[in-house]
């Protein structure tokens, strides 16, 4: 039984709904103060209905049904007002919606600009991948340094345990290695199909490690979003044959790659949740998570370079020359700049937008969940398919719109609406965990 500490006005008589009366000599109306000790993580709404009972001058009880104003109560050192809860909930939903929309826009830009960046660097895709991996470490740490001097990143944030970041770096490096190995064998059309297992892994891992529960409408919405992407990407093709042509082993390896990516994402969510406790209600800055995660990922990528370079068709002994030639093409200088039209503008645009996409994705994960961030990222796939049908520079003839694009888009949007739909109190609240 939790304890309550009541602070009553000197002249008041209060009657609770449980017919318990507290009497004072005189009548006083006003705002009551309630302090409520509460230990679990989640705040629960405390609601009490109070009725003022006055005392007449002759000692007889005078029943006055005057309503007391809104009560304040303290929850874990924070003062909260009952009628502000709904407003805060609405603001939270609006913040998540704006962050999700920004993630979708950045995701579309990321996919389109990656395709454009490979126009000048078509012979050096491995160089672009390594430039992204190691360049982001410098960018993220530079931003974190500036935010630390501005007081946004505190010393307590920097002192959080680094072991989870080591695990994140290892998971993302292994995901890159397995994804490259499988991607070199599988057809391009089969990869978007297999990538939908990422959402499945997100749900399963969040249930196992976060104890999260999902309602039936959320699971149905995720399923429809996945099917919408598959219909959009594979319309006019036999999905079964696409997967069969790549071989069962390589398909399973690609699925393992998405499992590793999902595990890294859920672990980031665990870091944010744990930081709320360790930082006494605060939260770790997302650039701290990005900086240390990228640093350890780059470390493990270095250890895997001989294996990764071979997957890209570059012998490890020739890797220094390959990187030097790739840098010359990226800068569009020297004798190797022939055929590098669009550099360095297009690769730089991709890097900038990719950083923005990663930051937007992590911010969305921080304020919502890994599943919501995954849904927002997934939503950008069909939009990107449509953008590639437009006359974009450097890409030549635009692609034709897939025959099942409209049907797939309708399924995807329907799934998103179903996922975000909140059943009424009278509806079934069945959930799965």
Task: Offer a concise description of the structure.
The protein has 433 residues and is of the alpha+beta class. The protein has helices at residues 85-117, 125-149, 155-158, 163-183, 190-195, 197-210, 216-234, 239-246, 248-278, 286-303, 305-311, 319-331, 345-367, 370-387, 405-420, and strands spanning 4-7, 14-16, 21-22, 33-36, 50-52, 54-55, 61-62, 72-75, 78-81, 214-215, 431-432. It has 2 domains: 4-76, no CATH class; 91-432, no CATH class.
Please give a structural write-up:
With 433 residues, this protein is of the alpha+beta class. The chain has two domains: 4-76, no CATH class; 91-432, no CATH class. It is 59% helix and 7% strand. The chain contains 15 helices and eleven strands. It has helices at residues 85-117, 125-149, 155-158, 163-183, 190-195, 197-210, 216-234, 239-246, 248-278, 286-303, 305-311, 319-331, 345-367, 370-387, 405-420, and strands spanning 4-7, 14-16, 21-22, 33-36, 50-52, 54-55, 61-62, 72-75, 78-81, 214-215, 431-432. The chain has a four-stranded mixed β-sheet, with no helix packed on it. A hairpin with a 2-residue loop joins strand 8 and strand 9 (78-81). Helix 1 (85-117) packs antiparallel against helix 13 (345-367), helix 6 packs antiparallel against helix 14 (370-387) and helix 13 runs antiparallel to helix 14 (370-387). The longest helix has 33 residues, at 85-117. Mean pLDDT is 78; it is low at 1-80 and 425-430.
């Amino acid at each position: 039984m939790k304890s309550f500490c009541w602070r009553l006005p000197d002249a008041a008589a209060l009657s609770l709904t449980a017919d318990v009366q507290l009497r004072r000599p005189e009548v006083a109306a006003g705002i009551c103060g309630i302090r409520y000790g509460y230990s679990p993580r989640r705040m629960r709404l405390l609601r009490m209905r109070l009725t003022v009972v006055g005392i007449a001058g002759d000692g007889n009880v005078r029943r006055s049904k005057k309503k007391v104003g809104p009560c304040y109560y303290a929850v874990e050192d924070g003062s909260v007002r009952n009628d502000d809860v709904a407003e805060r909930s609405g603001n939270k939903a609006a913040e998540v919606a704006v962050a999700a929309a920004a993630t979708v826009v950045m995701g579309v830009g990321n996919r389109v600009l990656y395709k454009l960046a490979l126009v000048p660097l078509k012979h050096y895709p491995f160089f672009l991948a390594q430039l992204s991996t190691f360049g982001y470490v410098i960018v993220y740490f530079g931003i974190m340094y500036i935010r630390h001097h501005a007081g946004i990143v505190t010393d307590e944030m920097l002192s959080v345990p680094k072991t989870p970041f080591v695990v994140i770096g290892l998971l993302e490096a292994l995901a890159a290695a397995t994804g490259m190995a499988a991607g070199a064998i599988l057809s391009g059309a089969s990869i978007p199909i297999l990538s939908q297992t990422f959402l499945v892994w997100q749900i399963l891992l969040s249930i196992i490690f976060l104890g999260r529960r999902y309602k039936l409408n959320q699971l149905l919405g995720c399923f429809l979003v996945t099917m919408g992407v598959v219909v959009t990407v594979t319309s006019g093709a036999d999905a079964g044959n696409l997967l069969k042509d790549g071989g069962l082993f390589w398909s399973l390896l690609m699925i393992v790659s998405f499992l590793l990516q999902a595990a890294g994402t859920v672990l980031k969510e665990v870091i944010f949740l744990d930081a709320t406790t360790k930082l006494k209600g605060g939260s770790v800055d997302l650039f701290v998570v990005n900086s240390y995660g990228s640093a350890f990922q780059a470390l493990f990528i270095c250890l895997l370079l001989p294996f990764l370079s071979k997957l890209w068709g570059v012998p490890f002994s020739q890797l220094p020359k390959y990187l030097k030639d790739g840098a010359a093409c990226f800068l569009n200088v020297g004798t190797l700049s022939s055929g590098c039209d669009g550099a360095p503008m297009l690769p730089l645009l991709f890097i900038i937008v990719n950083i923005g996409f990663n930051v937007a994705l992590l911010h969305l994960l921080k304020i919502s969940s890994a599943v919501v961030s995954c849904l927002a990222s997934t939503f950008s796939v069909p939009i990107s398919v449509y953008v590639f049908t437009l006359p974009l520079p450097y890409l030549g003839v635009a692609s034709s719109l897939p025959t099942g694009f409209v049907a797939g888009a309708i399924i995807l949007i329907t799934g998103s609406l179903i996922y975000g739909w909140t059943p009424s109190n009278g509806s079934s609240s069945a959930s799965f965990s």
